[in-house]
Write a structure and sequence with these properties.
alpha+beta, globular
């Protein structure tokens, strides 16, 4: 199961929506989100391109 969470694209960068597995310590692009940011703060944020590319590959792979 995956969830969307708001965080900076890079340290100190603009907010983006990241994809994260429910129990994973990092986003699909490898970032460790240190603090929880309210979703309303990211209402107009774009999606993290690296997370979305990883998620697309995961969804295209047949289950094992």
């Amino acid at each position: 199961m995956y969830e969307m969470c708001v965080g900076p694209e890079k340290k100190g960068g603009a907010l983006v929506w990241h994809v994260m597995a429910k129990e994973a310590p990092a986003t699909l692009c490898g970032q460790m989100l240190r603090e929880r940011i309210e979703a309303t703060d990211g209402e107009r944020a774009r999606h993290c391109p690296d997370c979305m590319a990883s998620f697309e590959r995961l969804m295209a792979t047949a289950p094992a």
